[in-house]
Design a protein that fits this description.
The structure holds three protein chains of three kinds.
Chain A lengths: L1 H28 L6 H18 L4 H24 L6 H23 L13 E4 L2 E4 H23 L1 H11 L1 H6 L4 H23 L11 H14 L4 H21 L2 H18 L12
Antiparallel strand pairs in A: 1-2
Helix pairs in contact in A: 1-5, 1-6, 1-8, 1-9, 1-10, 2-3, 2-4, 2-8, 2-9, 3-8, 5-6, 5-8, 9-10, 9-11, 10-11
Chain B lengths: L4 H21 L2 H27 L7 H17 L5 H22 L6 H19 L1 H4 L5 E2 L8 H24 L1 H11 L1 H6 L4 H27 L1 E2 L6 H14 L5 H16 L7 H15 L5 H12 L1
Antiparallel strand pairs in B: 1-2
Chain C lengths: L4 E10 L2 E11 L4 E5 L6 H8 L7 E6 L2 E2 L5 H7 L1 E3 L12 H9 L10 H12 L14 H14 L4 E5 L7 H18 L2 E5 L3 H7 L2 E6 L2 E6 L1 H4 L3 H14 L3 H9 L2
Parallel strand pairs in C: 3-8, 3-9, 6-7, 7-8
Antiparallel strand pairs in C: 1-2, 1-4, 4-5, 9-10
Helix pairs in contact in C: 3-4, 3-5, 4-5, 7-10
The chains are: A mainly alpha, B mainly alpha, C alpha/beta.
């Protein structure tokens, strides 16, 4: 029971970190970013390369990684996505191409076998008769800190309010002189950075392989549909729902059935309440 | 939109080429590749009929392909039914899938239809793994009977179905029905204001699209003599979309060309092994940036305007 | 004479906003009625309620004695109520002719094999005949407004709802379009309900005016009477002076209905 509670919390925190970025860039720029999982994988691999190949101290490597991946996100938005933004299909295909390329680069550089990334913290905690790795606890704490930080940023800075304004009404925001193109780049960087942070936090207890970005993408997708495309609180509630139901089913039924939870949730949501449980109306 | 003489000549030349190709190239290996390419042609054309014309991008076309293929597998392997019946049952099952998914989602605007199709296909993939006693799990169902024992004959059978499907889809697309589908792409609210039952046309198109895809799935299953969960993957759906994009969206014949071109190209690049996906990705980026309307259909239109 | 359209107690709320409030009126066959009111008075919302694009909360809408409640927009069109949009919404990617062919395919008017000739005739009628084969994307704004009207006429409506047909047009374009609309009413006997902001053209066109403000009907009457109604002057003309600095011309045009 306690095990479910703790593991569910860790998974939910990771999912929430992935989903907020995904939903943010959709809500603000209408970009359905299929390369979102690549940011997560790049986070894990960059921190691996910096610590093992360049001998950078781990805490510094983590910070550098977040910045590098955020810059990569900005670059992708500027160079590849922006010229194609008129067509939803073209955006989907170009972000897909980016994710394929990232996977190929990782495969050619690091090979297909799993890599070990050192933990920021070591040891295990004993908590109500359950053993839990310190790194998982750190992932939970780190996730919560980042999400709270994001919330403070959105609520209490000018840039944050500008981002919120665009996600609510892009046209009106543009009339009010908010430079939407720059905001899109910033949001892409932000969303990439958060995904990379999630990758760094899980890397020590997840298998780090080139295709590791695919599953998180599917999860982020599901959470965001359940919570409502473009809604940040929705994506956090969605992450909790999905994180806990997956953990419960994995413990009580089987791992295989837990894999189906996310897609079933998406279908049910789309059929019952298509705009998600926190989104705007989708039909007219 | 009517076919001019040059169009007939082009269609006839393409058909002659497809008839002659296995005779000229000979080997069973190449006939196999071409048979698979024709199946992809059916999938690409059927995707284009629904999504290319109405602009409702379907990111789970593999749902219908897998449904058709597994129908063939079930009937033949689990119940021992003569394989010809697969070709009847597969489209029907695929159409049933399209109704279940189409009714709740096609009334919605935005990316919801794409997301629902993608999720449905992924869910079917997981279901085939979970109910492994019936579906064979990851290994799938093996030992389907071939429909025709000669590989060359089977190639011509698939070609016949491809030609029939493309003709059917093209005739509908050129009729007033096609005009309405393109109008839906243009502006849905205006379509309503024009007195057109938009939901009916979208669902009917999805049903036709699913039927052709399901038939292609059954033909593919009886060529591979095996069906597996990979037939439901997103990757398959996205491959088909790329083929349509390369061929030229909304033209029906272009995507068939795109499918055959990319299938053959993928085989030709097999020697590059791990760099193969690179080529694929770079081709995709190049097309997106420099040929947003695709390759084959625009080239043909240019040729037509030069000759007339 | 029986009413063509009877609206009674129509209501629509969006959250806390009461967008359309207890609206009632009737339209006689062959009448030409205008809807007057400042921005946000609920005019376009009312059009959307009448045409089924937005479902109404309470009230009744009867067309030729039959209720329109719960019908989809396309079903209402096929009963004989056509509309145009405030912002022209052409079918992008199609030719001008094809744009008119689409409504010619509505079940109400569908005649296989005659679609193209009908579409061409309609384009001739609104003065776009020579632009039939152009892609719709290149049409200037004034032509798009005519195209909107041609598409609405293609469904052979008995009642035509025009949502600000003159919006965004220059003064040289307004007069011919007003003539076209007038001829639809006079020679084809079409019943027309029109929303418009440009007072002068408006008052010359219509026989009766429904004045709205804050979602409610303020008063209904002949144009000459309406403009002297104190609440209309207060709600509409008074505020008009702010964005149109020539109250004299407004007054002058009102004097000659």
């Amino acid at each position: 029971m306690v095990q479910i509670l703790v593991y569910g919390a860790v998974i939910s925190a990771i999912y929430a970190m992935l989903a907020v970025g995904f939903t943010l860039i959709f809500g603000v720029a209408r970009i359905l970013n299929l390369a979102h999982g690549s940011f997560y994988a790049l986070g894990a691999y960059t921190v691996y390369a910096l610590t093992t190949n360049a001998n950078v101290p781990l805490w510094l490597a983590a910070i550098l990684t977040v910045l590098l991946v955020a810059a990569f996100g900005v670059g992708v938005e500027r160079v590849l996505v922006r010229p194609l933004r008129r067509s939803m299909l073209a955006v989907l295909l170009i972000t897909l191409a980016v994710s394929l390329m990232v996977e190929q680069v990782l495969l050619l550089t690091f090979g297909s076998e799993a890599r070990n990334v050192p933990s920021l913290v070591s040891g295990t905690y004993h908590f109500a008769g359950v053993d839990i790795g310190a790194q998982r606890v750190l992932a939970l704490v780190g996730g919560v800190v980042i999400l709270v930080g994001l919330w403070l940023f959105m609520q209490h800075t000018r840039l944050g309010s500008a981002i919120l304004a665009i996600s609510q009404d892009a046209e009106a925001a543009q009339y009010m002189g908010i430079p939407s193109d720059r905001i899109y780049s910033i949001v892409m960087g932000l969303s990439a950075g958060i995904a990379a942070a999630a990758g760094i936090l899980v890397a020590p207890f997840q298998s780090v392989i080139p295709s590791m970005g695919l599953l998180p993408l599917v999860k982020a997708f599901a959470i965001v549909v359940v919570g409502g495309l473009g809604s940040i609180p929705g994506s956090i509630v969605g992450a909790l729902l999905l994180g806990y139901s997956e953990t419960i089913i994995a413990f009580k039924v089987s791992i295989e059935w837990s894999q189906i939870v996310s897609v079933a949730a998406v279908l049910l949501t789309l059929i019952l309440r298509p705009a998600g449980f926190f989104g705007k109306r989708a039909a007219f | 939109m009517m076919m001019s003489r040059i169009d007939w000549i082009g269609a006839l030349a393409a058909l002659c080429g497809l008839i002659a190709a296995p005779l000229l190239l000979g080997s069973t290996y190449i006939i196999g590749i071409l048979t698979v390419a024709l199946c992809f042609g059916m999938w690409a054309a059927s995707w284009d009929f629904m999504s290319g014309l109405t602009g409702r991008e379907n990111f789970g076309h593999s749902l219908f392909i897998g449904a058709g293929a597994y129908t063939a597998g079930f009937l033949n392997v689990n119940f021992g039914i003569v394989p010809w019946w697969s070709l009847v049952a597969a489209p029907i099952v695929a159409v049933m899938f399209s109704l279940v998914i189409g009714f709740p989602t096609l009334r919605l605007k935005g990316p919801y239809f794409a997301l629902a199709m993608l999720s449905a296909a992924t869910m079917m993939q997981s279901i085939t793994v979970i109910f492994s006693t019936y579906t064979g799990g990851q290994d799938g169902l093996n030992g389907l009977d071939p429909i025709l024992y000669s590989q060359l004959d089977y190639y011509y059978l698939v070609l016949g179905f491809l030609v029939a499907s493309v003709c059917l889809l093209k005739v509908i697309a050129n009729s007033s029905w096609g005009t309405l589908l393109r109008a839906i792409r243009g502006d849905e609210a205006s379509c309503q204001a024009a007195g057109i039952n938009v939901t009916f046309y979208k669902i009917a198109s999805l049903m036709i699209s699913a039927a052709v895809a399901g038939l292609g799935g059954a033909l593919y299953a009886h060529y591979q003599l095996q069906v597996g969960p990979d037939l439901f993957t997103v990757i398959l759906s996205i491959n088909i979309i790329i083929m349509v994009y390369v061929g030229g969206m909304g033209s029906i014949y272009g995507p068939v060309g795109g499918a055959i071109l990319l299938s053959v190209l993928t085989e030709a690049l097999r020697g590059l092994s791990e760099y193969r996906l690179w080529v694929y990705t770079l081709v995709l980026i190049f097309i997106l940036f420099f040929m947003p309307n695709g390759l084959i259909a625009p080239l043909w239109r240019r040729l037509r305007s030069i000759t007339s | 004479m029986n009413a063509l359209l009877t609206v009674e107690g129509l209501n629509k709320r969006f959250g806390g906003l009461h967008a359309v409030k207890d609206v009632s009126f009737t339209l006689k066959p062959g009448s030409f009625t205008g809807v007057l009111g400042p921005n946000g008075a609920g005019k376009t919302t009312m059009f959307n309620l009448l045409t089924g694009f937005i479902p109404f909360d309470t009230g009744t809408v009867q067309f030729e004695g039959q209720s329109l409640a719960g019908l989809a927009p396309y079903q209402i069109v096929n009963r004989g109520v056509a509309r145009t949009f405030q912002l022209a919404r052409p079918f992008i990617g199609m030719s001008v002719l094809e744009n008119v062919e689409v409504p010619c395919l509505a079940p109400r008017v569908r005649e296989l094999g005659k679609t193209r000739t009908r579409a061409q005739a309609l384009l001739d009628q609104v003065g776009l005949g020579d632009k039939a084969n152009l892609p719709v994307d290149v049409l200037p704004y004034g032509d798009l407004r005519r195209l909107e009207i041609a598409r609405a006429l293609a469904t052979r409506p008995k009642l035509l709802l025009l949502d600000e047909p003159f919006a965004g047009l220059g003064s040289s374009e307004i007069e011919p379009l007003a003539d076209l609309i007038r001829s639809l009413h006079r020679s084809e006997g079409l019943t027309i309900l029109i929303i418009e902001h440009k007072l002068r053209e408006f008052m010359q066109l219509v026989q009766e005016v429904i004045a709205m403000d804050f979602g409610e009907v303020v008063t209904i009457g002949e144009p000459a009477v309406i403009v002297r109604h104190p609440r209309v002057i207060d709600a509409y003309i008074g505020r008009m002076e702010i964005d149109e600095p020539t109250p004299q011309t407004v007054g002058a045009s009102v004097g000659t209905p």
